[in-house]
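User: Structure tokens for this complex, please. No commentary.
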Amino acid sequence: MSYRQARWDEPSLWDLAHAHAPEAAPAIPGVPERFRRREALNWPELSEPTVVRHYTRLSQMNFGIDSGFYPLGSCTMKYNPKVSELLARRAGAAQVHPYQPEATVQGSLEITWRLERLLAKITGFHEVSLQPAAGAHGEYTSLLMVKAHYRDLGELDRRTEVLLPDTAHGTNPASAAMAGFVTQEIASKNGCVDLAALRAGLSDRTACFMLTNPNTAGLFEDEILEIAEAVHGAGAMLYYDGANLNAILGVTNPGRMGFDIAHLNLHKTFATPHGGGGPGAGVLGAGETLAPYLPVPRVAKVGRKFRLDYDRPKSIGKVKAAYGNFGLDLRAYAFILAHGEEGLKHVARRAVLNSNYLAARLGKRLPRPFRPLVKHEFVLSGAPLREKGVRTLDLAKRLLDEGVHAPTVYFPTLVEEALMIEAPETESKRELDAFAEAFERALDDTPEHLKAAPTACAVGRIDEVRAAREPILSWKDMRAASAKVETP
Amino acid sequence: MVRWISDEVGEETALLQALGIASVDELFRDVPKKARLGRMGVGAAHEESEVVAQVDKLLERNRPLGRFADFLGGRIAARYSPAAVDALVGRSEFSTAYTPYQAEASQGMLRALFEFQSLWVELTGLDVANASLYDGASAGGEALLFCRRLHEGQRFLVPASLPWEERSVLTNYASGPNLKVEEIPYDPRTGRLDLDFVRKAVGAHDVFGVLADVPNGFGALDEHLFELKATIGDVPLAVMADPLALTVLEPPGNYGADVVVGEGQGFGIPPSFGGPLLGLFACRREHVRQAPGRIVGASVDAYGRPAYTLTLQTREQHIRRSKATSNICTNESLMALAFVVYASVVGPKRLAALQASLAEKARTLASALGSIEGIRAPRFEAPYLGEFTIELERGTAAGFLDRLRRRRVLGGHPLADPRPGAPKLPERILVAPSEAVGEKEIARYATAAKAWASAPGGR
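Assistant:
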């Protein structure tokens, strides 16, 4: 084991600066005194090199996809092409205000228009909107559209339920509840939707069934056409959570599978950087029934010009300021342009090949709860680790010491001590083999070492219970805590 | 084939052999034939150099802000960001990481987010900030739902001066649980909130929250802000505040705000045609378990060293599912990093000086426009900082802005809702001189406005 992350005893920003006596903020002519900040903002005055060194050191204590393999299941952590970063920083992309007159933003409008059409082809949908800022935002927007649709049909009072499988991402039930629906979980059978259970759950109260395909167990829902038929038979809508689209690019698509609406995560399948938690882009695709409800504005092409169209009487309105996360849309556009038809198909094929290879190899060491053929990710159960007195969490922490990121853990919840592993198309066989060896070393390590891990990261195992029990959530809390210690 | 897909010599064959299959096709045998695609029709692949050329060609059809005197502003503003900000934000250890689920390997981003939270706490005068939401408008939506968790009721009051976009977003966040967004009328002379209306509405016992914005949708500062909390009592007060304004204005926590949200784009984030933006959220300590989104907390590691981690996660969707305080998962962490780096590189004194200088530019322009017949500038008799509203007594906002554009002036943002069927409003424009604007550009604006006034219909 040779990995070691940087470990700086880096003080916080406020400890880098001399304390300065509180003074009032400057007075602004014409602004009455009562508006004026009595004590100027309490934030350190630092030199630029001090700030640059501080954040450079912090960055060295952070693991990104450029640092190493990142097999975080359902997050599709693929390499983020550098050329996209270059393009998003062009003045013509970054220094453009959303409220500029249409005539001065024809480039942005055209890129939006083109990307919407490319994504419509990829997803098999009638129309695409780039407005939602992230996947969960897209889910919520879609459910409002579903609601508006049933209001128009006069069925909203009755259709109060959203069904979802027990493998669904947590955002699905959370979005449904936010949209005012009652959620009902459908039990899985062998990792896939139990069609009989779904049929039993569907009724004229169902507004929508939300499904990820391939699902979070990494399995393709091979009864998808029957599922779509059952959902539509009940007069309900079928929602596609596009988190796992990477596995099926060019093979099938949500439109073809019978879905009515979908969100896609541009920060997964289309390789826009996830920024340590965001930004994302949760674009929406909708079939003919729901497309009229998409947020405004839409980008329209009139002759050779592009304009913003607000004349969509059925639209739900807006879910975010301006239009979409254009900086990310542009990166996704570059990604699609570079790959083309064949490249996108190859993305899915290689991602699925990688994951099946790794699944076969690691499946020899830990149980795989479902059928062996997976798509872009697979699930292992860490339950046997209990025999040596350790848990999946310990294995995950131990993997960090190998210079890789850990898989997603404890999800999906129907698998005991779950580990969810994804190996996108950008990973070489060498990287997969190295990960498999690291995984095996970690499994074979002593319980003491596993429990003591990580030891090669910037910090050791963190006391999360303390963080939640005695929340210290800002500098202000730190000041209060240290004042308490000093004056008992 | 694209270089980004792994294509090391012979590796695909080796992978297939290891799986004992002849073709990748076998891995897709579970996809029903009837669901298979032919062609998608997305065109051919391109070399990286061709991608650059094609995208650049499209971007050339944009005319970036640098070509104009920019008075657009509003909640989204173009400001100069020191090069150090993007150099740090662009470091791929930050930008290519996922959400810091493995805290020990992600201390850099967690600490930066903790510093970001600390900064929004200092700016707002509240106790707890989260690690970001999507943008200011959707943060307003989350504030609405947060207020509903604190207080019973069906109605959420917002200023009638709130930009239509934000009202639309708030209405959509309210529509899930079937809540109502209701407008508080304003005094036509000063733009101030009608406190009598607020008092009566709250008296009817079905208001669960009240929103005010600083500056308001007209760019004005409303002295009634300081009376709002006393007027509404235990009904939660939400404030939507501009972070730069808060470097010189009294923190909303000091006049009774229970939740403060805002748009953080102006701090180190380019306008990028409207996204990514940055939603800011802060609340009082006693309500932290009702807050939406991720929160970073300080703790210690196994050796007692300071360490940071995502905390209080039992509020969140991945644990609580349908009982979560919000559905948000991905937020705007990298933009939060930009926000705190920008503020730290520029420093609090220069930030306050920047706000003072923008206010001076606004005053100079407002007084020049105020002397032009046919333009009421500023429209409302109220104090303001860097932005103000003008009202045209004849002609249209679109016509006025078009005439200015011909002189390379982006003269502001029309306040009317552009959707067909929206209520007809006076021809009002929010005008906000950008940081790049100087005396020359202000004079150009005034000259162009005078020319318009002398012939509003003409070319």
